[in-house]
Each structure stands twice: as C-alpha cells, then as structure tokens.
Amino acid sequence: MENIGKDYLQKTEKSRARFDELTGLISRPEIIADNREWKKLVKERSSLEELANAHEQLSEFVRNLEGCEKDLAEENDVEMKTLFEAEIEVLNEKIEAKVEEIKILLLPKDENDDSNAIVEIRSAAGGDESALFCLELCRMYSHYAEKRHWKVEYIEMNETEIGGIKDATLMIKGKGAFARMKYESGVHRVQRVPETESQGRIHTSTSTVAVLPEVEEIDFEILDSDLRIDTYHSGGAGGQNVNKVETAIRITYMPLNIVVTCQDERSQLKNKEKAFNILKAKLYDYYEELRNSEYEANRKSQVGRGNRNERIRTYNYPQGRVTDHRTNLSSYDLTGVLNGNLDEFIDAMILKERTELLENYGQN
Using CB atoms within 10 A of its CB, is residue 110 exposed (0-12), middle (13-18) or buried (19+)? Predict the structure, then answer.
C-alpha cells in the first residue's frame, strides 16, 4: 500500500505545486489590481484545493507508514512489535481510502461545475396536463434549491389559463448549483388521472428540462448589430406598475435566432442585464458544443423532442412512485420528491458517471 501511496503522490505533485504557486500569485498587488485575472486564478486555485489537501494528507500517511515499518524492523520487543503492526494496518487503510478519494479528484471535471444554473422548463406532450406538471417541476426545483440554501430567481414564466406553465426560466444561484442541477436535463414524464378525466383513465404527459451554466466570461464577441432588443409590458403578478410600464425585455440574437426574455424585475435595466446573462449562457453552450461537433446531438440528448418515450424520469401518481430511467433507481416517496428531495437521484447519477469515468481513466 506504501507503493501505491507514493504513486499517487507523484501523480498529484504537479497539482499541489500549482496550488502553492496560485496561493502566492493571488496575493500579489499587480494580480489583485487586474480583477479579471485575479478571479480567474482564484477559480483555478479553488478547483485544486481539495486535491492539494488530499496530497498533503496522503504524504503524511506515507511518511508515518515508512516510520512505523522502520521501527518494526528494528524492534525486538514482542509487545511493541504488535503495536507497530496494528498501526501499520491502520495506516494502510488510511492510504487506501485516501487513494480512492484522489482517484475521484483526478477525474476530468466540468469547468462550469461551480457556476450558477439556468434552468429552462417547458411543457411538451400532454397539453394542459403537461403545463400543470411544468408548474410542479418549477416548485420542485425551488424546494430543492431552498434545501441546499441556494437562491432562486424566476427570469421568465408564461402561464396558461388554467394555472399551468407553458415555459419558465429559473436562475439558481449557489456554489455548485450547476454541478448538481445538470443531471436534471431531459424529459420528465408524469402518469396520473387528470381532474377533468371522467373515466378515471391514466394520462401520460411530459415536460422538458434544459440546464445551462451561467458564464461570467466568454471568448467571443457579441456585436450590437447582431442584437434586436424589444421592450414590452410584463404580464402576471406585479401590480399596476407592471402593466403600465414597458419593463419586460426581449433580446434576439439574429445570427442564430436565439430569443431570450426577462420580466422578473420592475426595472427595465435589471431585466436587460438578466436577459443578456441568459443569452451569454445560451451562446456559450452553443459554441462549446459546436467546437465538439456535437451540438445538435447533445441538445437532443438533453431535452429530446418531448415525446412520451423519451424520458429520464417518470412520476407515477397512482403508484406514488418516481423512477429514474438512467440509473433504474425508484422512490415511493412521490410527495417528498416533488417537495425537493432530489439528492438520492442526483447522487446516483454522480456515482454512475464517476464509475464510468474510473473505468475509462482509472488505469491511466
């Protein structure tokens, strides 16, 4: 176990050294003066902190193990030998556990995992039932964010006459929000008897969810000439001011015909700022996937076409069951899930992804 410990010390030495280098850089006055560069380096340092700490802990375990093995070889007293052997066993267990932790930390990471999450929810197959389910998904994510002490902002919401939602855009703010929320992307299917169903038949409806990271910096230019910005009267709650003043903003990125709207704030300026942030995220997503030549395939894999047979999760009301079809995990606490108890499903997806990555990269 000592040898494997040394192997992983060697594998993590460069990361630990870079962490130390960044710790010094971010305290230099010339770096602090350049806010953009400072934030970039702080983000990089934060991404290496866990690995650097794990390296130091593993180094301590390996040093202690070497010391115990040396003491054992030189010891003649039987009782002391027994104590050293017990300590060596404990240290080997600690090294093994720390190596497994480091294996996870060395896996390829999504650079956007620490970002806020932009969540788009749209009704799909099922008409009014789909719109009602869309509203329940909005509430579910709001409850989930509250449990994790994240902040939720409703950027846009288009309601139906019966109280459902045609589509909604939420901004979920908190460290690591995207890292967890990204696993909610896809088609969510609901099976239940609608209130208007006189025959008691179960209907199947779907809503789609797409999750994008909020991006602070982009490496391409958005030209004013490519934008069309329209103002209009906000709808929904908000009092007389909402209807009298054109505070809502619609931004169209004409080259790709991407349309973003925001009516969350009473201030036109704030709505414009939020809408532009959403646009940046959508363009970032588009160009990132385009660079990988997988944009269309990836977008389809996120939300599909909204058909009933394209789903990541099914919410079955008659059985009180929620099933995630990617991990085959089921929960019979439907009410709890709709109240934001999503960690069981998200943790299962993270474990599945890590397991697959370890199979691909674990021997490298």
Answer: exposed
Predicted confidence (pLDDT) per residue in 325-350, tens digit: 999 999 999 999 999 999 999 999 99
Residue 124 main-chain phi, psi, to 5 deg: -130, -115
- Give the model's confidence band at 238: pLDDT under 50 very low, under 70 low, under 90 confident, else very high: very low
Question: Cα–Cα distance between 16 and 319 in angstroms, integer?
Answer: 51
Residue 329: phi and psi, rounded to 5, are -90, 135
Between CA 334 and CA 341 the distance in angstroms is: 9
Q: Is 138 exposed, middle or buried (0-12, 13-18, 19+ CB in 10 A)?
A: buried
Q: Is the pLDDT of residue 303 over 70?
A: no
**Residue 278 pLDDT class (50, 70, 90 cuts):** confident
> What domains does the chain contain, in order, with CATH numbers?
2-105 (1.20.58), 119-364 (3.30.70.1660)
Report the predicted TM-score, pTM, of the whole model to 2 decimal places. Answer: 0.70
CA pair distance 170, 284, nearest whole angstrom: 18
Rounded (10°) angle between helices 2-25 and 78-105? 50
Contacts of 322 (CB under 8 A, 6+ apart): 313, 314, 315, 316, 330, 331, 332, 333, 334, 337, 345
* Rounded Cα gap, residues 336 and 297, in angstroms: 33
Tokens of 228: 């069309």
Please name which of 259, 258, 263 lies closest in space to residue 246, comparing C-alpha atoms: 263
Mean pLDDT, residues 37-64 taken together: 91
Query: Is 88 in a helix, a strand, or coil?
Result: helix
What does the mean pLDDT of the chain come to? Answer: 84
pLDDT tens-digit readout, 101-156: 898 888 877 778 888 999 999 988 878 888 999 999 999 999 999 999 999 988 88
Residues 201, 131: Cα–Cα separation, whole Å: 19
* Cα distance between residue 108 and residue 321, in whole Å: 34
Nearest to 216 by CA among 114, 348, 317, 314: 114
